[in-house]
Amino acid sequence: MVKKPVTIGPHHFSKKGDAVAFLQAILHKYDIGDKVSAADAEVLHAALALHPEAAAKVGAGVTHFSVRSADFGTKCFWVNRVDGSTEKFSIKGCLSG
After folding, report:
1. Is the four-CA dihedral 34, 85, 52, 88 of positive or negative sign?
2. Is 1 a member of any domain?
3. Mean pLDDT across 71-77
């Protein structure tokens, strides 16, 4: 299998697995219910822009990102929008392209 380089904002990875590990490390810094820091939010904005459904995920605009529970008791990132709505997004979904 050919390694495919991935760029997330200012971060460059030689293969997708390294990018996934980087984003998972950010996720695991937080507990469920935490708001993501401004620095990590910049990375998440860049990652979310790579998602095939980025426009739908961003919706009316992002106020911040948080970590909440997801399916099967796992935790994941959530977009918190300016209109008060929220939606989860997958790290792997951001890097599926």
Report:
1. positive
2. no
3. 84
